[in-house]
Amino acid sequence: MVSDAVTAPVARSRRPRTGTAYPRYVAGKAGGAAVSLLAVLVTGFFLFRLIPGDPVKTMTGGRPVSAAQLAEYRREFGLDLPMWEQFTDYCRKALTGDLGTSYQFRAPVIDKITEALPNTLLLTGTAFVLYTSLGVFLGTRSAWRHGKLGDKLNTGLALTLYSVPSFWLGLLMIIVFAVGLGPIPGLFPTGGMESGGKEGFAYVLDVAHHLVLPVITLVAVEYGQTLLVTRSALLDEMGSDYLTTARAKGLRDDLVRRRHAVPNALLPTVTLVFVNLGRTVAGVILVETVFSWPGLGGLFYQALSVPDLPLVQGLFLFFASAVIVMNTLADLLYPLLDPRVGR
Predict the structure, then answer these.
(1) Which of 11, 120, 204, 253 is least surrounded, with the fewest CB atoms within 10 Å of its CB?
(2) How big is the CA angle at 173 (ends 168 and 176), to the nearest 5 degrees?
């Protein structure tokens, strides 16, 4: 009786704290994301002003331009203002969604991002679905047969490809499968998104044909991390008592794996999926540049060559925001999958 009287108030006093734990957790993660975005905003402004070259002179294309005309260009784009004033104006506009006007395209930066975004999403979305599915499948199979030849081959190949630079692998793909090497004919386009002059289903097939090599490049480089995380998480689960109990009840190994082990082992993989989604969007710059894919990565490279400061800053902010938002979503989802987190 004494024990019940003592423990009951304690249990009641914990309920409000449990109910407010997740909102506090969400508020903390949202605050951290806001601070990170502010740091990106500041870094993006000052970092790209260290790039050598005068963007105004670059825009003239080497044509003879008078000092008065150069001064007019600088006044038009606000480059004649003191640095602190340029910075405050940039932050004020960025917080309202105005990323400025591109020097070379003479168009709003947000319009150029919106125009190129679907092409990047097509490339990264296709690669993301494929390398996530492949990584989870092979990681599960490797863990369940750990130590065997198949596991060693899968793990070794994943580690090797994960360490390969994406631009190098992309160039190798072009040399072997686009240009042709020895007895291997050139089967795919060397770059671009379409050949032109095609409509309807023929256009879809043409885009898919151009999509093959960049997607294979991204999948080859990225699937290894998902495989290794899935394999490691499943190996940690395989010694658990509940799996021994499931086997003792007469369940086949295949059912034990699919119904019991894999769902519990996928928690770290789910987090990695969100992180990879943001990282893939931001990390596609090199692949798009190598394959001349008309997406955000190619646009970023083109803007750097000027340098087109508003466009570079806007793309940098977009890429960093994608990573921050996806990391935050992963943090917010994890306590829903594992109640021990955030409590």
Answers:
(1) 11
(2) 125
pLDDT tens, per residue, the chain with 343 residues: 444 443 344 334 334 444 577 788 888 888 888 898 888 888 888 887 777 666 776 666 666 767 777 777 777 777 777 888 888 888 888 888 888 888 888 888 999 999 999 999 899 889 999 999 999 889 888 887 888 888 889 899 999 998 888 889 999 999 988 887 777 777 888 888 888 778 888 889 999 999 999 999 999 988 988 898 888 888 877 766 666 676 677 667 667 666 667 677 777 777 778 777 777 776 688 888 899 899 888 898 888 877 788 898 889 888 888 888 888 888 887 777 666 665 5
And the tokens for 296?
């955000």
Q: Which amino acid is at 295?
A: G
* Contacting residues for 102 by C-beta, under 8 A, at least 6 apart: 108, 109, 112, 303, 308, 310, 311
Which residue from 309, 302, 319 is spatially nearest to 102, judged by alpha carbons?
309
Q: Which amino acid is at 106?
A: R
**For residue 213, how far is the Cα from the chain centroid?**
19
- The residues that bridge with 181 in the sheet, in sequence order, are 184
Residue type, 82: P
β-sheet bridge partners, residue 108: 101
E strand or H helix at 1, and its extent? none
Please check whether residue 103 is in contact with residue 311, taking contact to mean a CB–CB distance below 8 angstroms.
yes
User: Both tokens of residue 126?
Assistant: 């296709």
Residue 210 makes CB contacts below 8 A (sequence gap 6+) with 188, 189, 191, 192, 193, 194, 195
Residue 132 tokens, joined: 């996530």
Tokens representing 42 are 């500041």
pTM over 0.85: no
Distance CA 333, CA 271 (A): 8
H helices of 178-284, in order, are: 200-237, 241-248, 253-256, 262-282
Structure-token pair, residue 106? 């003479």
Contact 251/295 with Cβ under 8 angstroms?
no
Three-state SS for 184?
A: strand
